[in-house]
Amino acid sequence: MAGEWAQVDYSIYHTKDQVFEEVEQLVAANPKIMRLDEVVAPEERTPSTPAYASPLKVVTVEPGGLSNNHNKKLRLLLNYGEHGRELITVEVALRLLASLADPGPALARSVQRGHSPHLLKHLLHSSVFKIVPMENEVGRAAVERGQLCERKNGRSVDTNRNWEVHWGFKEKDYDPKEEFPGTRPFSEPETAAMLRVAQHFKPHVWMNAHSGMEALFMPYDHMAHIPEGTAALATQDVLQQLNNISCGGRCAVGSGGKSVGYLAHGTATDYMYERLGVPLSFTWEIYGDTKAHFNDCFRMFNPVTQAQFDEVVGNWTDAVFAHRVWH
């Protein structure tokens, strides 16, 4: 049966090394608006947590020109590739970086949807992006070695369960093979480095890209309801519009805890909203083949044809250019 499962087609997808080669080329070609940094969190070694390092590569994109002061700009922190098996999210990150380097085609498509070209250009030049193309490099390397179902990092921790909000809580159907949250909040270098970026950058928008289904989630993941207040209602409105723009109206919209079918504890999106006060905190689930066998992980989480690939990557790159995301 295993021979029937879909495999990665590297004529369509980039390898991990190719991803960062392309990232470096884009940054080098656009030094006035792009910068690539590695963020390394201090390592806390104990007998129960062996040495492990995974620097976080972060691309700063400031379309109005790189500066040292972002206080008056809209700040967006966008994360891709948190789970190794979700290759398609990394491809969206690559396309997004290329589109920010040359935004003309993406802006033209937004104008075709009725958006003002002058407003879009103003918003773009008044914004700064921190983009993580691939959070989980070690998990991704395992996928490329043939472990196509791997979502965890190199220490078998799901970094999207390693954040402090409601960390370590176990539901009755808790699966340690899928959701191991680590030995303590922020025990993992990927999570600790992302926290450092977020604390310093103070984003207005957080978006964590995943695949496995088609959904647009807001807090909360660990409770089956959304926050109260006008900001939450505005967030729902943004997601409904994105559903129409990028998902053809198919996406589930609402809180992750209510819509995904299970509660998730220790997630990045809940922390960004609850602890750091990021007003627009999203999780975008950009693709899922719900008919795939549960062992057919590549097919379940990633498009397998060029046409599907192009549609998903194009739609979810354009989603970032939807002015409602920034407004």
From TrEMBL:
Database matches in InterPro entries: At5g42320_M14_CPD, Peptidase_M14
GO biological process: proteolysis
GO cellular component: extracellular space
Pfam families: Peptidase_M14
Residue span(s) of domain Peptidase M14: 12-324
Catalytic residues as annotated in Swiss-Prot or TrEMBL: E285
UniProt-recorded Gene Ontology molecular function terms: metallocarboxypeptidase activity; zinc ion binding
Entry cofactors: Zn(2+)
Family the entry assigns: Belongs to the peptidase M14 family.
Name under which the protein is recorded: Peptidase M14 domain-containing protein
Organism name: Elliptochloris bilobata
